[in-house]
Specification:
Order of helices and strands: HEEEEEHHEEEEEEEEHE
Structural class: alpha+beta
Number of helices: 4
Strand content: 15-25%
Strand order of the largest sheet: 1-10-13-12-11-14
Distance between the termini: 86 Å
CATH architecture of one domain: Beta Barrel
Number of strands: 14
Length: about 325
Amino acid sequence: MKNSIDAAMQSSVPARSRGPRRLALGVLVGALLTSGAAYAGYQIYVGSRLESTDDAYTAADTAIITSQVDGLVASVPVVDSQAVKKGDVLVTLDPTDARLALTQALADLARAKAQLAAAGADAERAGVDLRRRLPLAGSGSISGDELTRVKSGVRTAMAALEAARANVTLAEARADRARLDVERTVIRAPIDGVVARREVQLGQRIQPSLPLLSVVPVKEIYVNANFKEIQLKKVHVGQRVTLVSDLYGHDVEFHGTVSGFNGGTGSAFALIPAQNATGNWIKVVQRLPVRIKLDPAELQAHPLRVGLSMTARVDLTSSS
């Protein structure tokens, strides 16, 4: 009798707990179905309209400032992070040597012009002599040898005149070059921007093409957004882009448009490109930089700097 009662009590325990378990299982299944439906709805109505990446960074076509003449640095009136306008003086070189060269070139030009004037006078006299003797040659008043000498003198005078003209042209070119070298001792900003990477120092002897500093056009900053190659099927030039920077956070949104695609992936232009022909090759999804032009008014209101992190979201439904 006791054994039958214990068996009945044990069999009744699963029966009492079966209801809550079924309820919990139903809630879990319902939650999964709801989540799946929500995700499917997001992909259909939202996700399919957007492509986004957080692998995006600000960039700019920076102007690298170099000198076109050699010389000793006389002054550097700018420092890193200083804002400059187009035409502002960045570096000045000692102009002494350049001015001396200009003085010498101008003297050579004056001498060449004097020689040209003398050669012109000689050619004119030779021409007059020839014109006077030509009528006499027909009457036999002058010999053929004399006429030949006069004609030869005209040719010599004209050759000297042409040489003098060439010397003047050469001297003018040298004077123009020397004048330009004097002007180039003052190095000016080619664009508006902010000074960066200033390496030139006062008293330094510099050579042409040596990088001195850079000017970053912060008002023309753009974004390079590195999208996975599988994301780019529906991305086209002209589509609208919404961007958020880590600098300002989600309180500030930037707006722009897709302006172009890089000519290759980052790995394609790496110093040591990947060797995919080897036997242990593993396929890796590549990223292609997409250039995004920003709204200038928004850039002015919330300035950015080169290299800042951004999140970019492309509206695939916007017209190109």
